[in-house]
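Morning!

This is the sequence you dropped in the shared folder:
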Amino acid sequence: MTAIDDPAAPVARHPRREAQEVVGDAFDARVLEPSPPAVVDGDLFADDPVARDGSAGRPLVAPVSSADLTWDRWLGERPEWASWAAARWLGAWRRLPSLPPTYAETRLALHRLVVYVASPARQRVNGKMALRWTFGGLGTPFFGDDEQVRVAGARLVRQRGSEVQAAPITTLNGAAELVLDGPPDVAWAGRFDVPVAGDLDERLAVDPEAAVFLGDWFGFAWSVLEELRAEPASTEPSRTQLWPEHFDAAFDCLPEDRRCTFGVSPGDAAVPEPYLYVLPWRFEEAPPSEFWNSISFRGAILPFGRLVDADDQRTAALTFLRRGRALLEP
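The structure's back. Tokens below.
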């Protein structure tokens, strides 16, 4: 494995440039991860991973079916790149395994880490809290002077321009010293229902196997949600973002009277296992259906236990989300 193929390696990463080098000058490449340079204007201050603009007349290779060429089709004549694409959730889709036994503890520990350390690193520069899936885990879009904070397995990485620091995840204080140059921010999320910060010197219970699974769950989530977002039926779509307070990835679409959130959660207090969900903004106006099966909110869920054994996990996920969208279409 080269350093660029190790998500936790202390190397400066530029995912889109890396993909462009893979496809060559005949194509224009898109990936799911954020890339530099930092976006400094607009509402989101973050790049759109599957936008068509800027393709300079070359065929667009992207992980969504609206592209000129999907990564899967591109790989058809270049199978030697299948493992590279699969690791980045671009194509040659991998199966998600069963939940590791330490998953619940690791999920809670990483939730605390993103709330009190990773998200504040971005917020202090541009006021934005949202995160994204990043290679091997999750992290911020690039901000400020091309800076990014990301979790890669059981390691924390801080990239600033061409300089990179990485260290094992230990405590909240240790993590904050690496990426905040100061203490964790335990105040900003007080208005949200988030895990308590707890003892800032307590070792975070991050198991490497469970952390890798969580990173893959969010990679799977991003590949599914961006495909759904790119489809013509997903009218007026917002951007897919990972919200630190809820610790889930989601986007909204459809007109205001049928507006709906489509998301993927790693699990929570009500539903401990990961799940996909469809959440209508005006549930009282949603057509009656047995599809609406959630008991913790007014919507629908597809729990991981039903997804993991599917012959094609990605198709099962998209079928569930598309059914919810179809029920709400005008």
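Headline: The first helix runs from residue 15 to 23.

More detail when I'm at my desk.
O.
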